[in-house]
Specification:
The longest helix has 42 residues. A hairpin with a 2-residue loop joins β11 and β12. The strands form 8 sheets. The chain has a 5-stranded mixed β-sheet. A 4-stranded antiparallel β-sheet has the order 2-33-32-31, with no helix packed on it. The chain has a 4-stranded antiparallel β-sheet with strand order 3-4-5-6, with no helix packed on it. It has 3 helices and 33 strands. The chain is mainly beta.
Length: 392
């Protein structure tokens, strides 16, 4: 069994639950978005709050952090862009008519999904709506983005319609209407509607180089799709509750569920190879790091599992409510909870132990491989001798 860990630091600045936690690409800052209607900027160097973004008229549902700008979306129907150095609001994106629950920044685009049944594309710099994606029959919960250049062969690209050649960007949306849709960003036209789920689509993960999209749903399944043809490739069926979160690492798919487990699947075969138990409530978030699977749960605990064996290595106790998001940087684990706190945990010990274990495993595999090579060499020599004796 795992042993309990205590937090290195507890940040209690927010006056409401934290709904999301984003890490900047350079790893220097963290951004939290809260039920109190504000976002806060934290330094990963000293774990201090260095920015307080105020202006939303309702709670913040989601946030995204770039190196120089922060983005937040809210139940007040708007999205805001902030200067991370000054805390100044640089832009307000208006147009949605209901709660904006997800945003995604890609290139010069800002994408958003809302309870108003639409997704929208905005110019990051011009504070202007570029496109509206209308066609879902219920709210848009999750987003993904890719370029057709990432997935299409040259001859396939030539077959694209002329209007789509202007921009090869595509947006993927998952909705409570049980569908996933793929849209051309340039025209707003729906390129594919992926049908198969019988429940709300809660999470998406994209593997563009392999032309695959994974979707998790309240119908208890994960489905894999070919994002070029729209064909459903596999259905992963073993969960006994809604699939809430997904993580893809080295062709291994990790899925967190309301059934209190995480499962690991081999993407290429569809085989479930591990189940991670011990959670006393839904698994709300997960993150893979250096051979360790970290999870956050509705039972207010974070956990660390050996990803290969499934053995529970550590339990992080201290939060009072559900952990909504986790991030990892410099062997520190950051957990954000609906209790309003950001907690920071030292994971150097379990990372070090895991590295030693992996080193031993690789060494053992090397010895085994060497033995196998010697054995094959010996067998080949014996085979040659037999052939010579038989005059072959």
């Amino acid at each position: 069994m795992g042993n309990s860990g205590s937090a290195v630091k507890v940040c209690t600045d927010h006056q409401g639950g934290i709904n999301w936690l984003s890490l900047s690409p350079d790893g220097q800052r963290l951004l939290t978005g809260s039920e109190d209607g504000t976002a806060r900027l934290w330094s990963t160097a000293d774990s201090q709050c260095h920015g307080h973004f105020q202006g939303h008229e309702s709670y913040i549902t989601f946030c995204h952090l770039e190196n120089e700008a922060a983005f937040t979306c809210s139940a007040d129907h708007t999205i805001r862009k902030w200067d991370v150095m000054t805390g100044q609001c640089l832009a307000i994106y208006r147009g949605h008519t209901s709660i904006v629950n997800r945003i995604l920044v890609a290139k010069d685009y800002l994408f958003s999904g809302s309870y108003d049944r639409t997704a929208r594309c905005w110019s990051v710099d011009k504070e202007k709506q570029i496109q509206e994606f209308r066609g879902h029959r219920n709210c848009v919960l999750t987003l993904a983005h890719y370029s057709s250049r990432d997935v299409l062969e040259e001859e396939e690209e030539e077959e694209e319609e002329e209007e789509e050649k202007v921009s090869r960007d595509l947006l993927v949306t998952g909705s409570t209407d049980c569908t996933v849709k793929v849209w051309w960003v340039s025209s707003g036209r729906c390129y594919q509607t992926l049908l198969g789920h019988t429940g709300a689509v809660l999470c998406l993960i994209l593997d563009a180089p392999n032309r695959e999209l994974f979707s998790g749903s309240t119908d208890y399944t994960i489905r894999t799709w070919n994002i070029v043809t729209g064909e459903q490739l596999k259905v992963f069926k073993e969960h006994q509750g809604s699939v809430i979160c997904l993580e893809l690492v080295n062709r291994h798919l990790y899925s967190g569920s309301a059934d209190r487990t995480v499962k690991c699947w081999l993407v290429d075969t569809g085989e479930r190879i591990q189940t991670y138990k011990a959670h006393k409530h839904s698994v709300s978030t997960l993150k893979y790091h250096a051979g360790i699977l970290f999870t956050g749960s509705g039972d207010a605990c974070a956990r660390a599992f050996n990803s290969k064996s499934g053995v529970l290595q550590k339990i992080f106790r201290g939060h009072k409510f559900i952990i909504n998001c986790i991030q990892i940087h410099n062997e520190l684990l950051y957990t954000a909870s609906h209790d309003g706190t950001l907690r920071i945990w030292d994971i150097r010990g379990i990372c070090k132990r895991n590295k030693r274990r992996l080193k031993k495993e690789r060494s053992a595999q090397g010895r085994s491989s060497q033995k196998g090579s010697l054995s094959r060499l010996f067998n080949n020599k014996v085979g040659c001798m037999v052939q010579q004796e038989n005059g072959e």
